[in-house]
Amino acid sequence: MIVKILGGGCANCKKLMENAKKAAEELGISAQFEEVKDYEKILGYGVMRTPALVVNEKVMFSGRVAGVEEIKKILKKENA
C-alpha cells in the first residue's frame, strides 16, 4: 500500500503524515509513505487544497487533517 501526503510541508501536512503512520502501525498494515511537495504533481491529482491524503493513487480527502481513527477506516477499506 502506498500512502502519499500532498502538501508543501506545513504543520498540517506533518500532522496528517503522523496520523497516517500511526493508523497504519495500529492496524499492522505495511505501507510505504511519501510526501509530495511539488505543486504541479499535487495539481495532477486534482487537489486544490492541502494537505491531502492519497492511498494507492486515489485521493481520499483534501484540505484538512483527519484523525487516526478516520484514517484507519480508509486504510482498512483500501487494504481489503
TrEMBL record:
SUPFAM superfamilies for the chain: Thioredoxin-like
NCBIfam families: redox_disulf_2
Protein name (Swiss-Prot/TrEMBL): Thioredoxin family protein
Superkingdom of source: Bacteria
Pfam families with a match to the protein in the record: Thioredoxin_3
Domain Thioredoxin-like fold: 1-76
